[in-house]
Amino acid sequence: MPQSPNSLPKNPLLTRWADDVDPSQPLPEYPRPQMMRENWQNLNGIWSYAVTQQNTPQPTDFSGEIVVPYPLESALSGVGRALESDECLWYRRNFNIEPGWLDDGHILLHFGAVDWRCQVSINRKRVGAHTGGYDPFSFDITNALQPGENEIIVSVEDPTDTQPIQRGKQVRKPGFIWYTAISGIWQTVWLEHVPETYIESLKITPDIDRSCVTVTAQIAHPASNLVLEISVFDGKEVVANASGRPDQPIEVALPNPKLWSPQTPHLYNLQVRLQSTQHEIDQLQSYFGMRKFSTERDSVGHLRFYLNNEPCFLYGPLDQGYWPDGIYTPPTDESMHWEIQFIKDAGFNMLRKHIKVEPARYYYHCDRAGVIVWQDMVSGGISPRPIWFFFAGLFKHLRDDRCYWRLGRGKAENRAQFRSEYQRMIDALYNVVSIAIWCPFNEGWGQFDAAQIANWIKTYDPTRLVDHASGWFDQGAGDFNSNHIYFKPLPEFDLDSNRALVLSEFGGYSLNMPEHAWNPHKDFGYKKFADVESLTQGYLNLIREQLIPQIQKGLSAAVYTQTTDVETEVNGFLTYDRSVIKMDLDAVRNVHQELFGASRSKIT
Description:
The protein is built from seven helices and 34 strands. By secondary structure, it is of the alpha/beta class. It has three domains: about 20-195, Jelly Rolls, CATH 2.60.120; about 210-290, Immunoglobulin-like, CATH 2.60.40.10; about 295-600, Glycosidases (TIM Barrel, Alpha-Beta Barrel). Helix 1 packs parallel to helix 2 (about 360-370) and helix 6 packs parallel to helix 7. The protein is globular and about 70 Å long. Residues about 1-10 have low confidence and may be disordered.
């Protein structure tokens, strides 16, 4: 693996999957499972790189080597160097186009994600730019290509927390609940060959009440007399067909559909073909699940989360999505699959993806495993100072539609950028089966106009629920009265007649295992324990004595902090390197069965 002298972190902590990474072909899997074509080419691997000051010409010396798509700061990139806010990161590599690709059609260059602002050129011809570190984007590079070898240059700037951009928990000086910043390419880079007229995107909307699924396609360079043909497969058997004009939604009837749930995560395969009067123009493969998320009242009038028109208590961990060796980028596809399966095997039915967006394959694994996802938007603005964590309760209903500067949203262009990035995130993740809840703001971080944004989300995506302000600064909007409780026993909650009650963060019980720690001398957690036995017992008591009694009182969901330790936080079920389960897993699984059993008996 390429390395720069003295560039790796002083004490890199690696996961078991680090040895499985092939630097010449990391993360080789098809990156977009819900829109698959045969003609594609992975550009992950060893690239050349350089770092310059901003506003300087493209360098001539690209003598450094970096493994894409791992961030510059990560051990797996082979570099382990921070990008300063006044610097520019440059990537370079040569590639050859697959035979026949230049004969017809278009060649698209795709990026899963690049943090934060980038410009891309092919053979010294600029092909596009993108701002925003968390959404996929692509460029049509056909006219910039040439037979034989081609050159790609990507330049990246990333101010991290020197500007109020969307960055999540990334900071230049990690500590407390904020973590190492990342920069540059951090998801797969790939090429795709498409015909002259092709399917640019799909929107798949299941409707279990009407036993149908609606497919809406966007067509690039449309011609006349086109027909979109749709086939639904259950395994290898075709169970439904439909066709129609590609510029109109096409409804496919599914009599007696098999529903998707954590207990039975059934997925249908989807084949979409674009036809002219004479021949097939384009074809792709996808999948979907038949499910419905809603809130309904139980027999005593409490609003509850409902899955497929049945009450469902949601319980799962807060999940930060950080890795010690890849930071933002999971080391391998198997590492993502393993962690999601661990969550399922531990007896959870949900996870809350915390102020981070994952690669598309992560959600694919959630869909297959049957893990419901509570998806946060990435925070921007300013990170709250630690003192807020102790006094935020005094300002729970602080208005967020004025004095925008208080939370770092004083500039109108910054608020507009948030809205743009949020819409792009929803568009990118709309087809994910497992995502049930959108959460635009967490603990007031960069919060503004949360009620208005919640209403917009409900209109833009009426198939999902909204946690508009998780933890603090409740504006009375969305589907949930969302609470965070640490450092103290769970209180008697005030029920909201118009929203379901959720405990969107609690727990955070910690155990430091120095031999598996990012920094053995720092061990933040909300309640400390000395060993596995006492931590396990503390967790069991928390669930039995505090959480379960809340269900009958109207609690609809709970999120325990958290899946893994992260840097100096040591309050995970797993150590940061994913090597040690820090509780007795059998006992944890059993108490979760008690929890769900109690929810079934108390929610009627």
